[in-house]
Specification:
- By secondary structure, this protein is mostly helical.
- It has 19 helices and no strands.
- Helix 1 packs antiparallel against helix 2, helix 3 crosses helix 6 and helix 12 packs antiparallel against helix 13.
- 38% of the residues are buried.
Length: 484
C-alpha cells in the first residue's frame, strides 16, 4: 500500500474514523495495529524485522536507563551495532561482496560471490536511523526511555513516516503519542490541504517529469547535450517534487490524526550555497547526520583538516545510506567536495563582494542549483561511469535546434504534457518563493470566505485528477525514496 494507491484512499479515512471514536486509552493500540497493517501490505515479511528492531531498541533503552547497568557505553555500542548490522546485512552485503570480488580481480585473484537473495525491507534505512538516534538520546540523558511499549512501538512504526520519513526524534513524537490531540476541524482541514499539495507535487510534477527523465537516462547514448541537460534538470525537479510530495502527504496525514511531524524541506533550490542547500533538503536526515555522526567525530572543533575529514566521512555515509552502489557514494563525496571548496574559498568570495542584490542572490542560487544538478546525475545514473559519460555528452554534443524541431515530443511527453509540466513547475517555484518570504498560503487560504476556499480546493483536486499521471504503465509505488 502506498499513498497514491486506491487502498490507501480507503485505509486512511477508515483509520481516522475509528481513531476519533475510540477512547484515549486504546487509541495508540489501534494506530499501532493500523501501522503494522499498512507496512505489511508492502511485504508480509517486513513487519517481523520491524518488530525485532522495536523490541531490541526498547530493551536497550531500558538497560541504558537502569542503575544496574555497569557500562552504558557498551550497551549503546552493542545495541547500535545490532541495528546497523541488520541494515548492513539486508542492504549492503551483496554490494560488499561484489566490491570485494572486483578488488580481488584487480589483484589477479578470482572470487565469485555466492548467489543469494535477501529482501530489502521497506523503510529500513529510516527506522534504523530513527531507533539509533533514540538510543543515543537516551544514552546522553536528553531523553527518558519510553516505558509504555505500545507507544514506543508506535513511535517506530507510525505509518505516515515509517517508509520514507521524516526521521522522527523521540523527544518530538513520543510526548504527542502519550497525549493524542482531540478532533479539531481546522487542523483536519489544514492537514488535508497539505496532503492535497503533496499529491499535486507527486502526480502532476514528479511523475510527469519522470516520463522524460526515464526516456533519456534509459538510453542516453542516442541523445545530444540539450536532451541530457534537460533530463538532468528535470530529474532535479522530479526528485524534489517526489520526496517533498511524499513528505507533505505524510505530514498532512499525521496532522489530520493530531500529530506534528518535523518539516523535511524548506525551499532547497532557493539555497545560495551547497551548505545552505543541506540545511533545507531532507532536513531530518541532515540533522541526524550532524548530531550523531559529524559532531561525535569531532565536528569543526579540531582544525580545518579534521573538519574536512569529518565532513567527507559524513557525506560518504550519507551517500551510502541512500543506496548500496558506488554512484551513491560518489554523489555523497561530490557534495562533500562542494562544501570543502566553498569553505576554502570563503575568504576570496568575501573579497570579491558580489553583494546581496537581487541579481547577485539569483546568480548564487543558479550556480548552487547547477552544482546540485550535476551531483543528481550521479545519483540517478546506474554507475559512476554512466554518470561521467552522461555529463560528458552534454558538453560534447550540444545541439540547441532540438528545442524547435520536435525532438522534445519524442521524450515521453506530448506538447500538452510539456505545457502542464512547465506550468506546474512554475507554480512550485512561486509557492517556494512565497514561503521563503514568510507567506503561508494555507493559512492565508483559511482566512478567505468559504466559497473561495472551496473553489481552490476543487480546482486543486481537479488538477490532480486531470493532469496527474495515471493509467497503463503508471507505478503507484514509484516514490523515489522508497528504495532507501
Amino acid at each position: 500500500m502506498t499513498f497514491t494507491s486506491l487502498g490507501f484512499l480507503l485505509f486512511f479515512p477508515a483509520v481516522c474514523l475509528v481513531w476519533f471514536c475510540l477512547p484515549a486509552r486504546v487509541k495508540p493500540a489501534w494506530l499501532l495495529a493500523a501501522s503494522y497493517w499498512f507496512y505489511a501490505c508492502a511485504d508480509w515479511r517486513g513487519p517481523f524485522l520491524l518488530a525485532f528492531t522495536t523490541v531490541w531498541s526498547y530493551a536497550a533503552a531500558r538497560a541504558l536507563a537502569s542503575p544496574k547497568t555497569r557500562s552504558r557505553r557498551a550497551v549503546l555500542a552493542a545495541a547500535a551495532a545490532v541495528l546497523a548490522g541488520l541494515l548492513a546485512l539486508f542492504k549492503y552485503l551483496g554490494f560488499a561482496l561484489q566490491s570485494a570480488a572486483a578488488l580481488l580481480g584487480l589483484a589477479g585473484v578470482a572470487f565469485t560471490p555466492p548467489a543469494f537473495s535477501l529482501i530489502l525491507p521497506l523503510g529500513i534505512s529510516f527506522y534504523t536511523f530513527q531507533t539509533i538516534g533514540y538510543l543515543a538520546d537516551v544514552y546522553r540523558g536528553t531523553l527518558a526511555p519510553e516505558k509504555n511499549f505500545v507507544r514506543y512501538a508506535l513511535f517506530v512504526s507510525f505509518f505516515p513516516q515509517v517508509v520514507s520519513g521524516p526521521i522522527a526524534r523521540g523527544g518530538d513524537l513520543l510526548p504527542q503519542l502519550a497525549q493524542p490531540a482531540p478532533f479539531a476541524p481546522d487542523r483536519v482541514r489544514d492537514g488535508l490541504c497539505l496532503m492535497l499539495w503533496g499529491y499535486f507535487q507527486k502526480l502532476v510534477i514528479a511523475d510527469q517529469a519522470a516520463l522524460a527523465v526515464n526516456t533519456v537516462f534509459g538510453d542516453y547514448a542516442v541523445y545530444g547535450g540539450v536532451e541530457r541537460l534537460l533530463a538532468a534538470v528535470l530529474y532535479a525537479l522530479q526528485i524534489y517534487a517526489d520526496f517533498a510530495g511524499y513528505t507533505a502527504i505524510a505530514r498532512g496525514a499525521a496532522q489530520v490524526l493530531g500529530f506534528r511531524l518535523a518539516e523535511n524541506f524548506r525551499q532547497p533550490y532557493l539555497a545560495q550555497s551547497v551548505r545552505e542547500f543541506w540545511g533545507r533538503w531532507h532536513i531530518t536526515l541532515s540533522h541526524w547526520l550532524r548530531d550523531y555522526i559529524y559532531i561525535p567525530l569531532g565536528g569543526s572543533r579540531r582544525g580545518a583538516l579534521r573538519r574536512y575529514l569529518n565532513l567527507f566521512a559524513t557525506f560518504l555515509l550519507s551517500g551510502l545510506w541512500h543506496g548500496a552502489a558506488w554512484h551513491y557514494v560518489a554523489w555523497g563525496a561530490l557534495h562533500a567536495v562542494y562544501q570543502i571548496a566553498g569553505d576554502a574559498t570563503a575568504g576570496l568570495r568575501r573579497r570579491c563582494n558580489l553583494g546581496q542584490g537581487f541579481l547577485a542572490r539569483w546568480a548564487r542560487r543558479g550556480f548552487t542549483f547547477a552544482l546540485v544538478t550535476v551531483a543528481w546525475v550521479f545519483f540517478r545514473a546506474g554507475s559512476v561511469r554512466q554518470a561521467v559519460s552522461f555529463l560528458g555528452g552534454i558538453v560534447g554534443w550540444f545541439d540547441p535546434w532540438v528545442l524547435t524541431d520536435g525532438t522534445l515530443l519524442t521524450l515521453g511527453l506530448d506538447g500538452w504534457a510539456w505545457f502542464v509540466l512547465f506550468c506546474a513547475a512554475a507554480l512550485l517555484l512561486a509557492v517556494d518563493c512565497l514561503h521563503a518570504r514568510g507567506v503561508r498560503l494555507r493559512a492565508a487560504l483559511a482566512r478567505q470566505p468559504l466559497v473561495y476556499r472551496w473553489l481552490v480546493y476543487y480546482a486543486a483536486l481537479a488538477a490532480v485528477l486531470v493532469f496527474g499521471v495515471w493509467g497503463p504503465g503508471y507505478d503507484a509505488a514509484s516514490f523515489v525514496y522508497f528504495q532507501f
